[in-house]
Design a protein that fits this description.
The chain is an alpha/beta fold. The protein contains 11 helices and 17 strands. The protein binds NADP nicotinamide-adenine-dinucleotide phosphate and zinc ion (ZN). The site of zinc ion has 4 residues, from loops.
Length: about 350
């Protein structure tokens, strides 16, 4: 297979800071498109994986899975994109195409396991996948979405992971006007969740550990803000239909199970390393559910981009250069971001 060397930003060990690397990209196969990467968001999952917090990381790793760019080449059989089109890539870059889930556009549940854009075994072409902190990428067109013209390109990037990860459970749990929704954590996922849940018509309460974000949450659209470090404030809450948990670290989920209404659901999207113990009585009383949700399929990723364009939803971003990625990782670890870092990939060229 022909390959091309491209510049990237990644690391060879869990301990070393990220730096400039060269990686190989495959040449364009008949169903592939090549994309010049313009912007790439930084998700907490990039940090978990780069530091090998979940285990199983293969080095070198090039993170980045909120990719926005421009099509520079298309394969012979490509029909959905042409050179010059804007394009987005999220977590999934391949799957079996054949199982019921793939056929339904729910590739995140592919029975063979979907291929993730970075640090994943590439079952079709071999090797390990490298993510969006790079100049360009080659992907099967079926795993690429169109970026609506009205969206700002840099701030559209976080919709490709953070946006779909919160939109998909809101759709699944039928969030709409009249529903009371809680959102735990105002980070990348949480702040977009506020905007999307409000656009769906829900009454939104956010739970934050950060005083400075509490003041900001209403600007983001929240109806109520609860400082979750204050037990009394937390206990005074009640009757949530659904609470979306975006927290990246260990925390007590029982306090949130207690404030759900009968049949309410606490839905975990955060992926802390530690276990989250659930008390039987917290769950059983009131027939409550403790559930989880993992990104979303390609069809729904296009849907959330279109939803954001229609409702003028723009993630709040801090645009940085590649040489600020290590500092951004440190700040992410301290919950110090308002509210998503996005890397201007043009900085990789300089
Ligand atoms: P993030 O920007 O770092 O936000 C996480 C937020 O959690 C923080 O801003 C903070 O909010 C809160 N938090 C952090 N430590 C806490 C603690 N010890 N106790 C209570 N709250 C704490 O991260 P993100 O990019 O939004 O990602 C969040 C999590 O979702 C990560 O674990 C990530 O890996 C996971 N994720 C999962 C999926 C999926 O498909 N399920 C997709 C993407 C990401 P406050 O300052 O407001 O308290
Ligand atoms: Zn992510």
């Amino acid at each position: 297979m022909n390959t091309k060397q491209v510049k990237a930003y990644g690391t060879e060990t869990a301990e070393a800071p990220l730096k400039n690397l060269n990686i190989q990209r495959r040449s364009v196969a008949p169903h592939d498109i090549e994309i010049e990467i313009l912007y790439c968001g930084i998700c907490h999952s990039d940090l978990h994986a780069t530091k090998n917090e979940w285990g199983g990381t293969t080095y070198p790793i090039v993170p980045g899975h909120e990719i926005v760019g421009k099509v520079t080449k298309v394969g012979d059989y490509v029909t959905k994109f042409k050179v010059g089109d804007l394009a987005g890539i999220g977590c999934i870059v391949d799957s079996c195409h054949e199982c019921d889930y793939c056929k339904e556009g729910e590739e995140q549940f592919c029975e063979q396991g979907s291929t993730i854009v970075f640090n994943s075994q590439d079952k079709r072409f071999g090797g390990i996948t490298y993510g969006g902190f790079s100049e360009s990428i080659v992907v099967d067109e079926n795993y690429v979405v169109h970026i609506p013209e009205t969206l700002d390109l840099a701030s559209a990037a976080p919709i490709l992971c953070a946006g779909i990860t919160v939109y998909s459970p809101f759709k699944h749990w039928n969030i709409k006007a009249g529903k009371k929704v809680g959102i735990i954590g105002i980070g990348g996922l949480g702040h977009i969740a506020i905007k999307i849940a409000k656009a769906m018509g829900a009454y939104v309460t956010v739970f934050t550990t950060s005083n400075s974000k509490a003041e900001d949450a209403k600007r983001l659209g929240a109806d109520e803000v609860v400082l979750s470090t204050d037990n009394e404030q937390l206990k005074a809450q009640s009757k949530f239909d659904m609470i979306l948990d975006t927290v990246s670290a260990k925390h007590d989920v029982n306090a949130y199970l207690n404030i759900l209404k009968v049949d309410g659901a606490l839905v975990l999207v955060g992926l802390p390393v530690e276990q989250l113990p659930v008390g039987a009585f917290n769950l059983v009383h009131g027939r409550k559910s403790f559930s989880g949700s993992n990104i979303g399929g390609i069809r729904e990723t296009q849907e959330v981009l279109d939803f954001c364009a229609e409702h003028n939803i723009t993630p709040d971003i801090e645009l940085i250069n590649t040489n600020q990625i290590n500092e951004a990782f440190e700040r992410l670890e301290k919950s110090d971001v308002k509210y998503r870092f996005v890397v201007d990939m043009a900085s990789l060229k300089n």
